[in-house]
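Record 1 of the preview.
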Amino acid sequence: MPRLSLVVTGGQRADCTQFQRVLAKIRVPRVGPGRPRTKPDSLAADKGYSNGSCREYLRRRGIRHSIQEKTDSQAARLHKGSRGGRPPGFDEERYKKHNTVERAINRLKQSRAVATRYDKRGYVFLGTVITAALLIWLRR
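->
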């Protein structure tokens, strides 16, 4: 099971700006001995990560991904005709597993302290989120 990776930012920051930071923290344990891998086999993300820089980063690291293309990006690509390039690959079966992450985030938000974020300091809020995640994990 991959290690949970959390990055706390200001509420006005877009998720995609922290994409590389979050992926850099992920560790995938090996079955046998050895250090954990830093590169997951695949990734499923929502449309917020469909920009070129995220796709380029994944391509450079050799990580297969399933990210839906935004409708406005798709329209712009189609408007360009043959200069717009081909559509990015999209595996619907892999993308269906992405709802697991969404449900986990929703369970975290059931904790009132996580949903409202009364904490001023980022490290205190990170501790609150980790505590809520541990409680969810222990209740399983």
